[in-house]
């Protein structure tokens, strides 16, 4: 069976295809290609085949939304019998006694978990590598696949699985989606209700990575236990704001990325949507408040870990984060004020269109061996457009929108007010259908 979409696989399994077939095909592709791609920390070959065989006896197989679909999950959620390592030697190596909420929802929907994807240590960085391997961009292997859901993005972009789970605390789904030419959605706060949102001051949430808007919607609907999200509809006429102004730094955005935003805006204008050039009132406090949380979040998580086992860059990040926490620089007021300004912006606009990245991605390499500063500079440069929507808790997604001259994908970010997931997914599906 050729590589295909999750929507197609599930339809074929519901119609009678042996659910073992898609899993066997995925495992064969992983075996052939992942040595180069570096997407997986752990491949669950025997376990996945056993799960697929068990699906044959499910009396509800013909009704399961992800029937027989091989999926990958990020190394941050409990999967029964597997360790949750967060890309670090310092974390607990006791296998999870049971599935967490995410794995349980995937299995209930008929998915087969074929593997656990690679992440940077404690999911701090938008470059995904560890002593065991480097998650490379399948479209351009000399570049990073992104992070922290870089392994999940690499797995989907390489065709190893049709969809993958990710988490997004400061852009960790959208950044790798943009780099790898995928659709990646971060829902609003509380849409996927699990323990993950306790991470990084309630900024992190589970999301979906896929090659199509329909697949992203299908996976998100399962993760959120909201079937209405699985069927995105073309939105009515929207008030669309367009901006390529980077928050805080106002650094110049590469011309191909600005051009991608302009192409999307032109396409939407021709279809009848109202387009205006407008930028949210970012000011300075919100981006700086985001930066303090980027340091303090890992420091809070590391309290229960043996710091001597952390990578050098992470130890420095944690030391800075602890200083930030002692100084009381993580302030709720900053989040509340930015959320109010963002809410005001979306009273006049339905969707905001920006570049997903603020700079071209860096080259792949052993970033985990470099200093905190060497990692922080490209991280801050890349993520200017993404993280503030985690701080506000608004839904946002990245959609493919072109390439650089060297073929590296370019993504455009779509943002909406809380409750706007269906609008974003519908708009992404429309753009996908009309993209030349």
Automatic annotation (TrEMBL):
Domain Amidase intervals: 23-425
Pfam families for the chain: Amidase
InterPro entries named among the record's database cross-references: Amidase, Amidase_dom, AS_sf
Signal sequence, start to end: none
Family: Belongs to the amidase family.
Annotated protein name in UniProt: Amidase family protein
Organism: Prauserella oleivorans
């Amino acid at each position: 069976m050729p590589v295909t979409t999750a929507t197609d696989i599930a339809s074929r399994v519901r119609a009678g295809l042996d659910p073992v077939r898609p899993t066997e095909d995925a495992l064969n592709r992983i075996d052939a290609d992942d040595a180069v791609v570096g997407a997986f920390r752990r491949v669950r070959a025997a376990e996945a085949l056993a799960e697929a065989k068990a699906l044959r006896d499910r009396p509800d197989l013909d009704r399961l939304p992800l029937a027989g679909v091989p999926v990958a999950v990020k190394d941050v959620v409990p999967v029964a019998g597997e360790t949750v390592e967060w890309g670090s030697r310092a974390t607990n190596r006791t296998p999870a006694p049971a599935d967490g909420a995410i794995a349980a929802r995937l299995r209930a929907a008929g998915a087969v978990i074929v593997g656990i994807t690679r992440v940077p240590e404690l999911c701090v960085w938008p470059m995904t590598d560890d002593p065991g391997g480097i998650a490379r961009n399948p479209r351009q292997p000399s570049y990073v696949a992104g992070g922290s859901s870089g392994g999940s993005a690499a797995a989907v972009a390489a065709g190893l699985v049709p969809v993958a789970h990710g988490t997004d605390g400061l852009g960790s789904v959208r950044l790798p989606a943009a780099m790898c030419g995928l659709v990646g959605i971060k829902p609003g706060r509380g849409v996927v209700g699990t323990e993950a949102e306790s991470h990084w001051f309630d900024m992190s949430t589970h999301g979906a990575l896929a090659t199509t808007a329909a697949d992203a919607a299908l996976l998100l609907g399962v993760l959120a236990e909201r079937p209405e999200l699985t069927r995105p509809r073309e939105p009515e006429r929207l008030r669309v704001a367009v901006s390529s102004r980077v928050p805080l730094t106002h650094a110049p955005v590469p011309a191909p990325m600005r051009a991608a935003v302009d192409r999307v805006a032109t396409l939407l204008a021709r279809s009848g949507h109202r387009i205006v050039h407008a930028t949210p009132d970012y000011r300075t406090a919100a981006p700086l408040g985001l930066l303090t949380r980027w340091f303090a979040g890992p420091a809070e998580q590391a309290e229960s870990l043996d710091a001597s086992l952390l990578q050098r860059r992470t130890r420095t990040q944690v030391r800075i984060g602890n200083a930030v926490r002692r100084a009381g620089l993580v302030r709720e007021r900053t989040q509340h004020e930015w959320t109010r300004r963002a809410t005001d912006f979306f009273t006049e606009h339905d969707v905001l269109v920006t570049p997903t990245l603020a700079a071209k991605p860096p080259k792949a390499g052993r970033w985990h061996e470099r200093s905190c500063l060497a990692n922080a500079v490209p991280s801050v440069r890349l993520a200017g457009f993404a993280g503030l929507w985690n701080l506000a808790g608004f839904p946002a997604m990245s959609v493919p929108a072109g390439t650089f001259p060297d073929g590296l994908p370019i993504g455009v970010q779509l943002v909406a007010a809380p409750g706007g997931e269906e609008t974003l997914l519908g708009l992404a599906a429309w753009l996908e259908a009309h993209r030349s």
